[in-house]
Amino acid sequence: MTHPLLERLDRIGDSLSCRPGVLALLGVGSCGTETHRLDDWSDLDFFVVVEPGAKARFIDDLGWLSDAHPLAWHFRNTADGHKALMADGVFCEFAVFEPKEMDAVPRLSARVVWKRDDVGDDIVEYGKLPTPPGSQGETWIVGEALSCLLVGLLRWHRGERMSAARFVQSYALDRLIELDALRNSPAPGDVFSVDRRIEKRQPELAALLPQLVPGYLHTPSAALAMLDALASRGAVLDPTAEAMVRRLAKT
Fold this sequence. Notes:
By secondary structure, the protein is an alpha+beta fold. It has helices spanning 4-17, 55-60, 63-66, 138-158, 161-184, 198-201, 203-206, 209-212, 219-232, 239-250, and strands spanning 22-27, 44-50, 71-76, 81-86, 91-97, 111-115. This is Nucleotidyltransferase domain-containing protein.
């Protein structure tokens, strides 16, 4: 049975195929080559590739999209496209590109939903593959994690509680997720967001999240939990930096 989002994407392709100036419709993310990830909570991500000079027309007038299904709300979130909510609750995020722009677009597991007959199959081979998380190496990951803990706790003591929470419970956590992935080689995740599907991909680390992300009022305890989690995964922690983090977290 075809997933409803894929059927919706096919209808968008049908709508676009009737309009001059369209070269292709590409599904990306879970609507691209990773359709096995689709579930009841997925959104609809896609690219529309158009002829030179046609981009503005397809961004300014979304009739091609509402013809596939009525829109309840939308707004232009980038120079290239919109985020949109369809009347039945399907959330979309899309961009419109001309061929000359595609080389600068990160490649996102794209799948051809529809293309004009004169367009080659290699249209999905645009741009560069994004740099995978953790590719900077373990020394960088651990150094960044420690730096985020230090900056976060210094801001905590200054009274910048929100900024402190971000540095410790978000930025440092991202680096911990990358280190854990280096150790355990989970299934491939989202190259743009290391926390996506962590509950399934890295369940042992996910079990620690209540301690690692305890909330706005508990950043010092989060920093200590982060140090312990880094150390338990074999991180080589600079003793001076670690000692300062522990001192700041306990005062």
